[in-house]
Amino acid sequence: MLRTITVVLLIGLLAWAYQATQPPPPKICGTPTGQPVTAPRLKLRDGRHLAYKEHGVLKEIAKHKIVYVHGFGSCRHDAVIATELSLELVEGLGIYIVSFDRPGYGESDPDPKRTVKSLALDIEELADKLGLGEKFYLTGFSMGGQVVWGCLKYIPHRLAGAVLLAPVVNYWWPGLPSNLSTEAYYKQLPQDQWTLRVAHYIPWLIYWWNTQKWFPASSVIAGKIDIFSSQDLQLLPTLARKQLYLPQIKQQGDYESIHRDMIIGFGSWEFDPLDLDNPFPNNEGSVHLWQGDDDRLVPVLVQRYIAEKLPWIQYHELPGAGHMFPVADGMSDAIIKTFLLCEK
């Protein structure tokens, strides 16, 4: 009898453990279980839909066409370069910007097969279907900045230039010296160290890890105040408008948005960004990396190494700035002027 009870309990425990690791199916927009589609969308090569939002002057008259890639836990509305850019600069330079919901976010269909490469190809297809021309500019912030590395690898021939704003670093990129990546890794809160370990080594557990209540999981998901620098805290009121569309960001489910972001961003990449060649050997374009030296989310020492290793990147370090520096007053204008007009 004791053996039977033990077996039953063990089976029950295993069944519970398995169930706990399985995320619920996504609630896809436009289906009976999902929210209605409200944004313009285009259909991709594999049948998925990508939702987007256009800013600035009409693309038919634009002199500069920019694709903006949002960060972690964000959506097409979080296009800081577009929303914070002065009207004078937009009209004076003829700037058109399109932001889009990355797969699983907002109203873009989830992509269970999403990879670093597939997202670069999504961006290329977005540009083609919107008629942005042979070449376009690319800007990405935070996790969106990390996406830019994939575009520099897989579609460099389509880029007129690129900007990485505080791009998230994968501590397991082979080109990072182990002592440097270790030092940077341990600058994070312990709970984030564990979260990234799970995302990298046992990704199938990431849903359970981020939803269980036994141990503290991602501080970013929890929105802990500890992750913000003093400048970030001053800038938080600027982000209050995000409350207007906050429910839209993860409306299709946490797993296909933020959890898959972690799995891809901190997984084993099929290329090393530190091995990339200059995509503009004849100075026909440029790549810029902007970083605050008081960023609590992305350690500045790693960005310094990347800039040293890849001298073709124009590196801009901002003293006293945190992770949210792009929303600071006048910052978007300064970034775009430096990028498009080569101003210092």
TrEMBL record:
<keyword id="KW-0732">Signal</keyword>
<feature type="signal peptide">
    <location>
        <begin position="1"/>
        <end position="20"/>
    </location>
</feature>
<dbReference type="InterPro" id="IPR000073">
    <property type="entry name" value="AB_hydrolase_1"/>
</dbReference>
<dbReference type="Pfam" id="PF12697">
    <property type="entry name" value="Abhydrolase_6"/>
</dbReference>
<protein>
    <submittedName>
        <fullName>Alpha/beta-Hydrolases superfamily protein</fullName>
    </submittedName>
</protein>
<feature type="domain" description="AB hydrolase-1">
    <location>
        <begin position="66"/>
        <end position="327"/>
    </location>
</feature>
<dbReference type="InterPro" id="IPR029058">
    <property type="entry name" value="AB_hydrolase_fold"/>
</dbReference>
